[in-house]
Amino acid sequence: MEQAITLDDDATPLNEAGSPFDIWRAIFGNAWLLGAVLAIVSSLLESVGLIFQKKAQYKCMGDNVAPTDPKPSRLQVMRKGAFWLGVILYLLSSPVNMLAQKYAPETTVLPLNACIVVVNALLSFVVLYERFTQSDVFASVVCIFGAVAINTAMSQTLPGQLDNFPVQEVLQISNDLLTNPGFTIYMMAWLVLFAMCVYVVTFVSMQSAAKPFAVPMLVGLLSALFHFMSKLMITLVMRSSDPEVWSDPVTMKVIAFTTVLYILYVWSMVEGLQQLSSRFFVPAMFVACQVLTATQDLLFFRAWEAMTQKDISVFVVASLVSLVGVAFISPEQRVNASPDASGLNTPLLSPRTDAVRLHQNVLNIMDEYKIRQPTSPDAVGLATIDMSIPVTNWWRVFPILICIAMVSLPVVLWCTDRLFAMFTVLTLFAGYQGWKLGMHIALFAYVGTKKMAHFDNADFSALYKAEMKDPKTRGASFPRWEDVYHFVVLPNYKEDVEVLRLAIKSIAASG
């Protein structure tokens, strides 16, 4: 194919879809918007499916979720209903994503698939109790913006599906796959990477630094090639009424090869997720799939000919930045076990019990919030800081201006017929408000409640004695257990003094 393929757009313009408040009519009346919504739904199904599969593994592990603890067998995990629910949801995401590409171009669908990284991070933190560092969060954000930059720089002429191609041309494309110079070069590189990943996954131990990156790369290789072959298969199946489709033997070859690729892709995904943390595996798999999918489409359809030198540079740099960003996400399974699976089922431990091992989740939570600090030999005196900072006139007017702008800006954009900009502004504002005033409060309150549940049955006296016996944690300036003062923070808001006095007496009487 000498020229880049031009995607026909039969979508209904947004300004002809009715009232701006008629959301459903706007979505179903516009092909591009429908494809975007389906892409987001596909990402949600995929991320939730992966979380359910990982949750099944953590349930089997119980309180033994340390990186050095043995992982449950494949059969143990498969006996959990959550595992099969996750597999079903994950399998549903593929047809939904293919349907999204029927209505919207790949340059819309692929960046929206980055929702899987956002949803996975939230659910890994809330449902799986995986611990994130600032490096993990920053690297995940880099992966998301890198994927958006990759697809922004790509040629907008890439087809989502090949519905507008004549049957003869689709058959010719299928027969001439390996005669396409660009695709041949890509397949040679694909085979080399595939062989390297298979070797590392099969013969290299998990302690090696290469294996955590080879596993998601293998999944990305299979996913990207399946993504491409599924285009051909769906197009041929949709033209099955044409006798030329089944008379050509390449049709059955494409269907068989795509089916084998899909089975290998799903199997490698399930296996890879069991070996690595969801915090690392999902972004790494997503970035590998995005870069490879974009590269193979650019080479096969020769869409790079329609890209400027600036677009090619942005594409290459964004791909490299995304791949490097994955290296800053820790693949280690840093997990706080569910409080229900905690071994601290009694407030008093036997002297023979390994208190540090049983309190590992408690210590992890303390270290996460930097609660354990070394005692300074030269303590600074108590300082009082005045928090009554005066507010200037500008900061008093600022929230009023923001409220006016959030109402007037969408109205101005609507009146000037800039509907896409209006849709973008409202989406960003609704997402920010939904997170800051809704999900943020609920998620962190839920996680905080679960973390505090680990402290309910903790025997801090036994933990203190165990750490004093360990030369790594014993400090010369540590106070004796008998000298430790326990205090209670009693918040109040305009409470009556008598009520506070009764509360303090109650706490004192409790011992």
Automatic annotation (TrEMBL):
**What's in the keyword line of the UniProt record?**
Membrane, Transmembrane, Transmembrane helix
Task: Please provide, in alphabetical order, the Gene Ontology terms of the cellular component aspect for this entry.
Answer: membrane
- SUPFAM superfamilies, per the entry: Multidrug resistance efflux transporter EmrE (SSF103481)
Domain of life of the source: Eukaryota
Pfam families, alphabetized: Mg_trans_NIPA
Please give the chief subcellular localization of this protein: membrane
Q: How does it sit in the membrane?
A: Multi-pass membrane protein
The protein's location, in the record's own words, is: Membrane
Transmembrane region(s):
31-52, 81-98, 110-129, 136-154, 183-201, 213-238, 250-268, 280-300, 312-329, 394-414, 420-447
Give one GO molecular function term. Answer: magnesium ion transmembrane transporter activity
**Database matches in InterPro entries:** EmrE-like, Mg_trans_NIPA
Q: Which PANTHER family match?
A: MAGNESIUM TRANSPORTER NIPA9-RELATED (PTHR12570:SF65), PTHR12570
What name is this protein filed under?
Answer: Magnesium transporter
Q: Which organism is it from?
A: Zooxanthella nutricula
